[in-house]
Specification:
The chain has 105 residues and is mainly alpha-helical. It is built from four helices and two strands; from the N terminus they run E-E-H-H-H-H.
């Protein structure tokens, strides 16, 4: 069978490697995909969004010790609101890092 120049072929089927699939699916370079994968792991594993929220709240309030909670918001905040705000902050952190990786790598 002649090679058509459209990719590697085995028995008439086109063979696509995993790295080619990732690049075509996500439109990202491998370094960008690596940054996204690694930062996603660390952000979720160590709950880094909580610390980002704590720092944001600490900068705007003189009562820094009141933000040392599981969500980074004061204990006086409604639990449902604190959890949802933390989820939103976590997602914003992921989106910003992913966007920067896709744009510059």
């Amino acid at each position: 069978m002649a090679h058509s120049g459209r990719g590697d072929q085995e028995g008439g089927a086109i063979v696509i490697s995993a790295d080619q699939l990732l690049v075509h699916l996500f439109g990202a370079s491998l370094p960008a995909f690596g940054v996204i994968l690694i930062t996603h792991f660390f952000i979720d594993r160590y709950r880094l969004a909580r610390f980002m929220v704590m720092a944001k709240n600490w900068l705007g309030s003189p009562h820094a010790e009141s933000f040392n909670t599981s969500t980074g918001y004061p204990a006086s905040s409604p639990a449902w609101l604190a959890v949802w705000l933390l989820i939103i902050a976590d997602n914003i952190l992921h989106i910003v890092i992913n966007g920067l990786a896709l744009r510059f790598l």
